[in-house]
Amino acid sequence: MRHLVRSFNMVELSMIALVTIAALIGFVHGLATQNALFAGIETIAAVCGICSVVLAAKGKRSGFLFGIINALGYSFISYSSNYYGEVMLNMLFYVPSNIVGFIVWKRNAHKQRIGEVQGRAMTGLQFAGSAVLLLAATFAYQVFLRYLGGSMAALDGFTTLASIFATLLMVSRFAEQWFYWIAVDIVTVIMWIIAQDPVMVVMWGAFLANAVYGCLLWCYKAGKRVPFEPLVAKLAD
């Protein structure tokens, strides 16, 4: 555990601390407005979630272990808010994909960086094709969610399908996963603002910041030009 904490830099520790503080505040508030079980699950999901995505941004396969806990807790929270797309995404996709991801990343470990995966980049045509496929799939899926009576079916459908695309790219070790994560996080922040859940807003806001951070790190490691390159190079070491 001590080795894991030391592997984080100040930017990463700040994001983890922000979500942890928000989660604890939400837990105390939740005890007065919700039952203790719901408040506790929300807190655990938030902390494990930010640890998972920060570790993913670093290319560390240990993030998948935190991801499993987050997926289980977030499914419970989403079900309580009638976000059925999020429930199905987490239970039927995130839990098994985190297990698969841990195995795949272990088999493609970086030769110099212990515990880190060897990333790669997509071609422009591959990325464009995935974007077109995502738009078509989102249109069809939101129709299904409306049939179920889900809340904000269009937004819920987009986050569900885009998250699946991003996760598949993550398991496959593509840097372009982070462009999808940025889009997912922006939409999900809006969803939880509407749902008036401040803990989830802070958690997904931190996810958004981490997605931008992860995008810079992975693109730099894939040999692409990135903004603030000297700083990114320092953080990547």
Structure, explained:
By secondary structure, this protein is an all-alpha fold. The protein has one domain. The protein contains ten helices and no strands. It has helices at residues 2-6, 10-33, 36-57, 63-80, 84-107, 124-148, 153-171, 177-194, 198-221, 229-236. α4 (63-80) runs antiparallel to α5. The protein is globular, with a radius of gyration of 17 Å. The two termini are 20 Å apart. The mean pLDDT is 83.
Q: What descriptive keywords fit this protein?
A:
237 residues; mainly alpha; 10 helices; globular
Short description:
This protein has one domain. 79% of the residues lie in helices and 0% in strands.
Secondary-structure blueprint:
Elements: H1 2-6, H2 10-33, H3 36-57, H4 63-80, H5 84-107, H6 124-148, H7 153-171, H8 177-194, H9 198-221, H10 229-236
Helix pairs in contact: 2-3, 2-9, 3-4, 3-9, 4-5, 5-7, 6-7, 7-8, 8-9, 9-10
Segments where pLDDT lies below 50 for 5+ residues? none
Give the N-to-C terminal Cα separation.
Answer: 20 Å
Which structural category do the helix and sheet elements fall into?
mainly alpha
Strand content: under 5%
Principal-axes shape call = globular
How many structural domains can be distinguished in the coordinates?
A: 1
Oligomer: single chain
Order of SSEs = HHHHHHHHHH
| Total DSSP helices | 10
Mean pLDDT: 83
Q: What would you report as the Rg, rounded to the nearest angstrom?
A: 17 Å
The main sheet comes to: none
Percent of residues in helices: over 70%
Number of DSSP strands? 0
